[in-house]
Amino acid sequence: MTDTPAARLAALGITVPVAAAPAANYVPFVLENGLLHISGQIPFDEAGGLIRGRLGDTMDAAGGAAAARRCAIGLIAQMQAALGDLGRVRRIVKLGVFVASAPDFTDQPEVGNGASDLMVAVFGDAGRHARSAVGVAVLPRGVAVEIDAIIAVS
Predict the structure, then answer these.
(1) Quick check: 75 pLDDT over 70?
(2) What is the CATH number of domain 5-14+28-153?
(3) Could you give the 3-state DSSP secondary structure of residue 135?
């Protein structure tokens, strides 16, 4: 039974949280023509606190990857809220990874792997995706990472 996303999440010890509400004038997701577009998700720790920092300054790449994994859990929560059943996910099409970075930090791809690796672990080959991973000066609320997604659904 570990061939379903829900079973894989359970095997990984991940409990999907309630999807985060929007922080401003936008919707958390839009489902249109078989594509689910998910607004940027920021990292919350297991206690619900924000994971703040700047890579290459107050946080290293491993900490950034952990924050990206938490963003991916937020994306999965939005998928669950939008679809009701994670089994409806046909493919993770693309992730956009934004990393709050010091000017000399260049390991954005390694940070993004925190999210990418989780998508593959949960969705198997359907979790393999195109991706952008870029450094930015600052992110909302001072978080270390923000990730948005496009998902093909049935």
Answers:
(1) yes
(2) 3.30.1330.40
(3) strand
Reading phi first (left if > 0) and then psi (alpha if -120 to 50, else beta), residue 84 is in: left
Q: For residues 88 and 152, give the distance between their C-alpha atoms in angstroms, rounded to a whole number.
A: 9
User: What is the value of pTM for the model shown?
Assistant: 0.97
- Report percent pLDDT > 70 for the chain: 99
Q: Which residue has the tokens 């997604």?
A: 149
Domain locations in the chain? 5-14+28-153
Crossing angle of helices 61-83 and 108-123, in 10° steps, is: 40
- Give 56's Cβ-side CA count (13 Å radius): 16
- DSSP annotation of 52 reads B
Q: How far apart are the first and last CA of the chain?
A: 21
